[in-house]
Amino acid sequence: MDTSDKDTPAISFELFPPKTEKGMEKLKTVVGELNHLNPEYFSVTYGAGGSTQERTFATVDWLREQGIDTAPHLSCIGTDKEEILEILTRYREQGIHRIVALRGDLPSGSGLGGLGELNYANELVALIRQSFGEDFHIEVAAYPEFHPQAENALADLDNFRRKVESGAHGAITQYFYSADAYWRFLDDCKQRGIDIPIVPGIMPITNYSSLARFSDACGAEIPRWIRKRLEAYGDDLSSIQAFGAEVVTALCRQLLEGGAPGLHFYTMNQSGSVLEICSGLGIASGASAT
Ligand code: FAD
C-alpha cells in the first residue's frame, strides 16, 4: 500500500464531515484543490457513538462518486458490533478497502471502558479481521507523545502493540512538533517487533488559540519555542500562518529525509496551508489555495 518513492512521498488528507450545505460546498472545492497533489487517499472522521454517522456517510458517498480513494474512520466506543458490521458491509459494497479503526473519544464524565461491546481499538481491529479477513487495509492511531489516558508510556506502547497483533496494517500518528518524539517511538516499536508503517500525522498551524486548546485535550505538545512565538503574534493571523508554514514544512522535510513512510495531513477542511507546505516540500500542485 505504500506508494511513496524518493521523489513523490505518499500523502493522504483527513477531512471532517461538514455540518452545513455551505461547509459541504467548501469541502468540495478543498478536495478539488488537494486532489491535484495526487494523494493516496482522503480519510473522513467519524464521531464517537455514531454522532456524525449520516454526515460521514454523505461525505464518503460524495468522494466515492468522484472516484476518489476514501478511508472512512470508524470508532467503536458506544456502538454495538452489529451496527459496526453493517457499516463495514456498506463500505465494502462501495468498493472501499481502507478503514481507520479507532476507539473514539469518550463522552466527558464517563469512566474508561464499559460503554459498549467494544471498549478499545484493538477489539475493533480484531472484529474487522475476523469478519472481513483482508478485505480492508486497517489503519490505527499511534501516539508518539503518548495517549493522555494511558496508564503510563510503556503501557501505551503495549496497547499499541495489541492493535498491531490484532491485525492492523498501518498506523497514523497523533500530530506532534518534535521529530525526536516520532523517532523514539519508531525505535520503541522496533524493539517490540512492530514493523507496520507508521505515518506521521501533520497538523498545519493556522490559529494559535484553537491549536492550544486542542493540543491540551489530545496530549500533543507545542514546544515552548513555537508556543512563545505564536503567543507573541497575538491576532496577527498572517504572521502566525507564515511562521506555522515554515515550522511545519521544516518538520515534514526532516521526517521524510529521515525515512518516514509518508505524511497524513489533518486538513481541517482547509487547503491553503497544506498546499503551501506541500509546495515547500516540492510536491507539485497546479491548484490555487482557499
Ligand atoms: P485505543 O488504542 O483503544 O487506546 C485508548 C486508550 O486506552 C489509550 O490510553 C491506551 O493506552 C488504552 N488502551 C488501549 N487498549 C487497551 C486495553 N486493551 N486495555 C487497557 N487499556 C487499553 N476520534 C474520533 O472520535 N473520530 C475519529 O474519526 C478520530 N480519528 C482519529 C484519527 C487519528 C489518526 C488519531 C490519532 C486519532 C483520531 N481520533 C478520532 C481520536 C481517538 O479516537 C482518541 O485519541 C481516542 O481517545 C483513542 O482512540 P484509539 O483508537 O487510539 O484508542
For this entry, give a set of tags.
single chain; about 290 residues; alpha/beta; TIM Barrel; 8-stranded parallel barrel; binds flavin-adenine dinucleotide
Q: How would you briefly describe this protein structure?
A:
This protein is an alpha/beta fold.
Approximately how much helix is present in the residues?
40-55%
Rg from C-alpha positions? 18 Å
User: Percent of residues in beta strands?
Assistant: 5-15%
> Which stretches are poorly predicted, pLDDT < 50 over at least 5 residues?
none
> CATH topology of the domain at 11-204 and 261-268, which one?
TIM Barrel
Order of helices and strands: EHEHEHEHEHEHEHHHEH
Structural class: alpha/beta
First-residue to last-residue Cα separation:
30 Å
* Cross-sheet strand order for the largest sheet: 1-2-3-4-5-6-7-8
Q: Give the class-level CATH name of the domain at 11-204 and 261-268.
A: Alpha Beta
Task: Figure out the total of helices.
Answer: 10
Major sheet details: 8 strands, parallel, barrel
* Oligomeric state: single chain
The shape, in one word, is globular
CATH architecture of the domain at 11-204 and 261-268: Alpha-Beta Barrel
Mean pLDDT: 93
Beta strand count: 8
Bound molecules: flavin-adenine dinucleotide
